[in-house]
Q: What sequence folds into this?
């Protein structure tokens, strides 16, 4: 019985600690999770090798993809359409574990107009906390970021676009 | 304790099995290959859990039983030792010496109290009890034997705690890196991933390993590799922090992880084009075993509805096959058997790649990028492609440097190696090390220390010399105790002035 107060204290501390782990709430029906991204997003364009840098302070949607990834093909038409429909949101791809030729063929096949950053070793994806492919991160003007670790459907993508504008 | 010995023996046998049967957690590809090559044994071993011995229910059951038996045995023994150590400092109960063991007595002119003091000096090195009202006391030596034995046995529990730490908070993974490419330490980049129950995604460090080069030395009599080494650079936060070679048993240790050299293979650099458009140009990691000793990789072109199986032969020859001559690999050295003949066939003297094309719905579902499930796909032909320089040297007549299927042309541009690193995080290792040190620390006294007890009784007699009685018993090494008892008795004699002998009347 003497253990009971200690157990209560441990449980309370654990609950508080668990609560501190997620500083931002889940969103989009619990699909998107708040993450903290501290480093600037940029790199080499898969099309021409030129530098690509994501402008901070703007609504941004980053899609982590690869030409080898089956589910990426399923969501790409949606992303292409949404990018055209929302010019106020900057769309950027992060092409992981891929080679440029395959990436270019993929982008041509799906008529992707927004730029993609080559990330063959997933360094940038790791900094975005994207641990699966595909993954999509919505970042709003205040720098708050929400991550979805799977292929997005139309509803989720709409919701992410909305989050990027908050 | 006998039960614990049987369990320990069973665990040792299990460890031997784990050494002989490829373990999925250490060598997933080898374990898969074993199951494909030995179908019956593969099934039997799978049912018995031999491909993951340390994770099997019976191994963990044995461990749990060992813990139970150890604790059940050690708790009473430890309590008894503490009781003994506490009671030795108290004066013994007044009584007679035990009947067994060695005894001697001597007279002295000293008073009773003086004789007690002299006797206590003579028993130096013994842990002495207090003196009771009958001037009796006890001296003991050799507690280290039981203390050592208990440390030895408790250390096994510490060892198990260390192992549990590794299982719970540790990590096992496998990284494949092609020469010249970089790899980031993050969950998605592992080709095999087995975290401990409490190993979180955020525990990954995100540092980068770049494989500068990979070298193989073929020094074994059978032509096999005697040494293979990955030359790597490590980058953390964009800054190079280390550069070194990774060899078998000489791992890279960084960020709480150990990277062991596990295996290696070929990653032929391939270009696939559709007219003037390049659809793919890069290495194809060939981790699987293909026909005729080749290594096999895959490429999928979902938009084209075409996939390729690429079987790479670094040192081929033509050998009889089911449907006529087929390439068979002679060694791992590209073109290493140039000039060698087997039967009527000459070794090619250069590497080749057999391309097998398949068409159909490749599918957009997540799939293993290293393998191709050809069920439901239609074979669309196959051919053999050689490096461009070989084709040029042969005047374009021998073999083709480019072949075409379904409007896609395939070229073999270059050869690269890939390295396979087994990655481990073992947070329990310091605890296991401590346990090993404690086992040794406990083993030595438990083997070499021996327990013995001496009794002293000083009797003051009216009008007569004081009588000092010495008795003793050894619980081990009785022959050695005889010697020690004699030494103590002589020392006691020296400390007690004897009663002068009466002159003869």
A:
């Amino acid at each position: 019985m003497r253990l009971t107060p200690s157990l209560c204290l441990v449980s309370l501390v654990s609950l508080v600690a668990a609560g501190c782990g997620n500083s931002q709430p889940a969103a989009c029906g619990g699909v998107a999770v708040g993450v903290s991204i501290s480093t600037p997003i940029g790199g080499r364009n898969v099309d021409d090798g030129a530098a690509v840098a994501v402008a901070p302070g703007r609504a941004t949607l980053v899609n982590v993809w690869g030409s080898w990834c089956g589910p990426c093909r399923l969501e790409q038409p949606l992303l292409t359409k949404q990018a055209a429909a929302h010019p106020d949101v900057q769309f950027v791809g992060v092409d992981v574990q891929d080679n440029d030729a395959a990436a270019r063929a993929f982008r041509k096949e799906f008529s992707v107009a927004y730029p993609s950053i080559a990330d063959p070793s997933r360094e940038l994806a790791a900094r975005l906390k994207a641990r699966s492919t595909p993954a999509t991160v919505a970042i709003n003007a205040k720098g708050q970021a929400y991550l979805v670790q799977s292929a997005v459907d139309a509803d989720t993508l709409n919701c992410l676009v909305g989050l990027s504008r908050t | 304790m006998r039960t614990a010995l049987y369990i320990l023996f069973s665990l040792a046998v299990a460890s031997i099995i784990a050494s002989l049967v490829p373990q999925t957690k250490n060598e997933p590809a080898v374990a898969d290959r074993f199951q494909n090559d030995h179908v019956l044994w593969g099934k039997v071993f799978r049912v018995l859990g031999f491909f993951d011995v340390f994770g099997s229910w019976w191994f963990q059951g044995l461990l749990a039983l060992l813990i139970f038996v150890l604790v059940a045995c050690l708790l009473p023994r430890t309590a008894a030792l503490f009781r003994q150590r506490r009671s030795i400092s108290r004066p013994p109960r007044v009584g007679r010496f035990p009947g067994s063991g060695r005894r001697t007595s001597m007279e002295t002119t000293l008073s009773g109290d003086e004789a007690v003091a002299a006797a206590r000096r003579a028993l130096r090195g013994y842990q002495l009890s207090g003196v009771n009202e009958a001037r009796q006391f006890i001296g003991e030596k050799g507690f280290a034997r039981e203390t050592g034995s208990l440390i030895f046995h408790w250390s096994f529990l510490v060892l198990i705690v260390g192992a549990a730490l590794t299982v719970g908070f540790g990590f096992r993974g496998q990284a494949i890196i092609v020469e010249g490419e970089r790899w980031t330490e993050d969950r998605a980049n592992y080709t095999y991933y087995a975290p401990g129950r409490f190993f979180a995604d955020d525990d990954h460090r995100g540092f980068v390993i770049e494989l500068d080069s990979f070298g193989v030395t073929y020094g074994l009599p059978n032509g096999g590799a005697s040494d293979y080494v990955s030359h790597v650079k490590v980058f953390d936060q964009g800054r190079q922090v280390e550069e070194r070679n990774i060899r078998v048993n000489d791992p890279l240790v960084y960020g709480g992880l150990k990277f062991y050299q596990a295996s290696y293979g070929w990653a032929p650099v391939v270009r696939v084009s559709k007219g003037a458009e390049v659809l793919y140009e890069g290495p194809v990691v060939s981790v699987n075993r293909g026909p005729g000793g080749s290594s096999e990789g895959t490429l999928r072109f979902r938009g084209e509805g075409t996939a390729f199986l690429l079987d790479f032969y670094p040192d081929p020859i033509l050998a009889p096959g089911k449907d006529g001559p087929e390439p068979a690999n002679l060694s791992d050295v590209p073109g290493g058997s140039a000039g060698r003949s087997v039967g009527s066939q000459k070794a090619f003297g250069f590497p080749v790649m057999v391309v097998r094309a398949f068409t159909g719905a490749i599918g957009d579902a997540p799939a293993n990028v290293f393998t191709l499930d050809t069920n439901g796909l239609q074979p669309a032909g196959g051919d053999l492609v050689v490096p461009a320089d070989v084709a040029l040297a042969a005047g374009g007549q021998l073999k083709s440097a480019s072949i075409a299927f379904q409007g896609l042309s395939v070229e073999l541009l270059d050869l690269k190696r890939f390295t396979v690193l087994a990655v481990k995080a073992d947070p329990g290792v310091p605890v296991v090390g401590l346990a090993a040190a404690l086992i040794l620390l406990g083993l030595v006294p438990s083997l070499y220390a021996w327990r013995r007890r001496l009794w002293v009784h000083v009797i003051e007699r009216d009008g007569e010399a004081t009588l000092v009685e010495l008795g003793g018993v050894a619980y081990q090494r009785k022959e050695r105790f005889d010697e020690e008892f004699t030494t103590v008795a002589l020392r006691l004699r020296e400390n007690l002035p004897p009663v002068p002998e009466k002159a003869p009347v």
In short: Chain B touches chain A at residues 181-189, 201, 204, 206, 208, 271, 277-282, 300, 302-303, 363-367, 369 (CB under 8 Å).
